[in-house]
Please model this.
Amino acid sequence: MFAANIFMRDFVFSQGSRFLERSAQRSLSNAEKLVQEAVDVFSVLPHFRVPVCDAVLQDRFRVMMLRHPVLHDVGLVYNGNYMYCSSMKESTRFVPVSDQVTANASHLSLVVVKDNLTDKNGILVQWHISERVSIGAFLLSDSFALDAIQANFADFYRMKLVLNNGDIIAETSPESRLKDQSPFYNFEFDPAWTKDLIEQTMPSDRYPIQVAVGVPFDAVWNSYVGAMNVINGLSILAGALILFFCVRLGLKKPDPYHSIEAGIRRKEFIPFYQPIIDIQTGRLSGCEVLVRWRKPDGTILSPGHFIDVAEASGLARPMTTLLMEQVASDLSIAYQDNPGLKVAINLFNGHFQDLAVVQEIQKIFGNSGVHYKQLVFEITERLPLENLDRARAVITRLQDLGIRVALDDAGTGHGGFAYLQKLGMDIIKIDKLFVDAITEETDSVPIVDSLSQMAKGLDMVVVAEGVETEQQLSYLRRSGIDEAQGYLFAPALPASGYVQLVNAIGGGALKKGRSSKNDSRKQNSADQGKKSA
Ligand code: C2E
Ligand code: CA
Ligand code: CA
Model:
């Protein structure tokens, strides 16, 4: 828009100049025509000798006046200021207003005078016959019709017809025009006139006269206001379009698919670990792996920003592979020392349609310090499984290895009880939605109770998610829920934080829970050896 404004200023300036130039040209040629009429008169009168002022000469002057009505008077002039032998019969005295200016032809001169008889200003055009005597033609200033500018800025222009010495023959100005409209108008000098003018001067190549015209730039600018608004609008639009295309082309952000793909390549997807607590004993029972995207600038994005794209685009598989590899390396040592701890990893529904995932898991964890018995894979109930039989086959293969499978987000989705029975889950995770229903005011949350009872009937472990308050914790405990995770205990921690926690307390109690009376570590350790082999 700035550039457009600069461009517009140039444009307005050149348009204004051109307009003034044409107007000055018209005024000048009008003026030249008038002077020419005077010169025409001289050419047909005796102008080589001082003529005798007789009736014949006066008649000839009168005829000239009839033929050239624009001339106010014609006669002999003495000393440049006294007209005698005039066509008007009376002699008159001129008061010179300016110096005499000589034309190209040295016999010809022009001078601005005031006619004493009529009290009017005009120019006296003289053909000099002798040192003191000339033939003169008097033209009233008023007869020099200066061009009436036809433009939106017509109120503001100022035009002068001047002799080459600068003396004014005729003039039109904002003040004079207003005064013409109303004689009582008390005009003041327009301060706008003094600044930022567009001006044109047009000298005559025939006579010593010229036209000067000017108009304040602002007046011309304002007359283009409508156009300016259009131009400004267009330039804003153009700017917006340019910006749009810059953003699309130059500064183009990679689309989410490609940035996730690149993120996977650069290993920017990392596991965070949210501790899971055995709420009956108060011991740490393990963790859930929650993916985070650590951008090169250090910002950490939670799954809400990318998980759906990853799932829909097929990038979920390589992302999960990357996570599992990191889990294996993050926890190998700490989990070898604490065989009773589990780690739950979220899988996508697609994983459960393809037995290849089992091989992948074996490849990653088979030789790691994280044993199969420590592994839990979560499958969400939120989204339907395409083929239940195939999912069942995958789950069975995993369970054969000693890996456990959890139904995530239980109670929120499609499968319900049928899922639990058909798929043969080991663990059921009660969604935060139902845990949130446990408040200070509530005596009972039937869905939590019934999920818990149902799970017990199927010999499943029940984990509650999103536990934030002591009330929720004690309700869940009373309801027979085995384990819980949530901000009441800990958020998802980076690997170092979680490993520190494990090293500090191992399978011991966290502050929030009750401490256990018997240490189950040794017994779990024995189990591990059996199943992971
Ligand atoms: P989810 O599996 O139900 O995970 C629990 C979510 O609840 C996590 O959000 C966790 O940070 C959050 N959370 C835990 N405790 C509390 C609490 O006390 N209060 C509240 N308000 N929130 C709590 P997150 O990490 O944003 O993950 C969101 C979802 O993204 C997960 O829900 C899971 O469905 C998905 N997701 C996360 N990581 C993975 C992954 O590695 N693979 C797959 N397939 N899905 C993942
Ligand atoms: Ca989960
Ligand atoms: Ca959940």
Observations:
- Residues 512-533 have pLDDT under 50 and may be disordered.
